[in-house]
Design brief:
Elements: H1 21-38, E1 52-57, H2 63-74, E2 78-83, H3 95-104, E3 109-114, H4 119-127, E4 131-136, H5 142-156, E5 163-167, H6 174-182, E6 189-193, E7 209-212, H7 215-219, E8 224-227, H8 243-250, H9 254-257, E9 265-267, H10 280-283, H11 290-309
Parallel strand pairs: 1-2, 1-3, 3-4, 5-6, 5-8, 6-7, 8-9
Protein name: Aspartate carbamoyltransferase
Catalytic activity: carbamoyl phosphate + L-aspartate = N-carbamoyl-L-aspartate + phosphate + H(+)
Enzyme class: transferase
């Protein structure tokens, strides 16, 4: 899906395939402006007034859905919230029919989450409107990666030459894939680490990405360490010897962080399994930027909506 939008920009944010580094940097710069908006007593601007944004979530979500809906409303868009469980989808309606029905109501953009990889691409095809991928299967979650990058940039001023270690269930993580695609475009080095059973070899072929099974080697010299949620509901296929073995080896805790760069920050895309993939003291400690990620998410998503629908720097 390569259709250009306003001013030659990518029309959609489905992944980062069509996004040049300078465009990505402009999104992050825009988030600075949006943070200023959010610091005002009246946290609202008329940038998207008269436009209707549909949040089409075919999969459960709390953080991402609320963040996107607030982002759109902060810019005065009308928001239509679509939940698959309370719709004709539960009666067997196809994705195409659902999208074409919603588009007949004159939606101006879609924010889509779906359990099937590639679903956001289909919505872009059937709707003919700008689409933001809010997570599709294991494939991509681009705005989460953008807010992760933005949080790191806030800390260090730039991502060039920074090392980011991402530890955990990489196999099932769309967040890991999107960060592996995005961060090297912004000049960072990415190390993906986990048990061999949870470490897809094809990701090691991406530019700027290294695969490692030793977590101490992975975090050595890292400026940011991200713990991924261990998706326990997917761990029935013999991926792990035991949960305790995983905790002993891969939990992001103070002992592991001793190998990282002095002052390294800790990230987590949420929701967390405390004292499983990350220790409670680290999650709540001075290195943690987890709540900062949440607050940054709204500004980043405001910037994405602005760039796709208004198209001015």
């Amino acid at each position: 899906m390569t259709a250009a939008g306003i001013g030659g920009r990518p029309r959609h944010l489905l992944d980062f395939q069509d996004w040049a580094p300078e465009r990505l940097s402009a999104l992050l710069d825009g988030a600075d402006t949006m943070l200023n908006v959010l610091s005002r007593p009246v946290k609202k601007v008329p940038a998207l007034q008269g436009l209707t944004v549909c949040t089409a979530f075919f999969e459960n979500s709390t953080r991402t859905k609320v963040s996107f809906e607030l982002a759109a409303r902060r810019m005065s868009a009308d928001v239509v919230s679509f939940a698959a469980g309370a719709s004709s989808v539960s009666k067997g309606e196809s994705l195409r029919d659902t999208v074409e029905t919603l588009t007949a109501y004159q939606m101006d953009a879609y924010i889509v989450r779906h359990s099937a990889s590639g679903a956001a691409h289909l919505v872009a095809r059937y709707s003919g409107k700008p689409v933001i991928n809010a997570g599709d299967g294991r494939r991509a979650h681009p705005t989460q990666a953008l807010l992760d990058a933005y949080t790191i940039r806030q800390e260090y001023g730039d991502l060039k030459g920074k090392k980011v270690a991402i530890i955990g269930d990489v196999l099932h993580s769309r967040v890991a894939r999107s960060n592996a695609e995005l961060l090297p475009k912004l000049g960072a080095e990415v190390t993906l680490c986990g048990p061999a059973t949870l470490l897809p070899l094809e990701l090691g072929q991406m530019p700027g990405v290294t695969l490692i099974t030793d977590p101490r080697e992975a975090v050595r010299g890292a400026h940011a360490v991200m713990a991924l949620r261990l998706q326990q509901e997917r761990m029935q296929g013999g991926y792990l010897a035991s949960m305790q073995d995983y905790v002993n080896t891969y939990q992001v805790n103070e002992a592991l962080l001793a190998e990282a760069e002095d002052g390294a920050i800790v990230l987590h895309p949420g929701p967390m399994n405390r004292d499983l993939e990350i220790s409670g003291d680290v999650a709540d400690g001075e290195r943690s930027r987890i709540l900062k990620q949440v607050s940054n998410g709204q500004a980043v998503r405001m910037s994405v909506l602005y760039h796709l629908l208004v198209g001015r720097d």
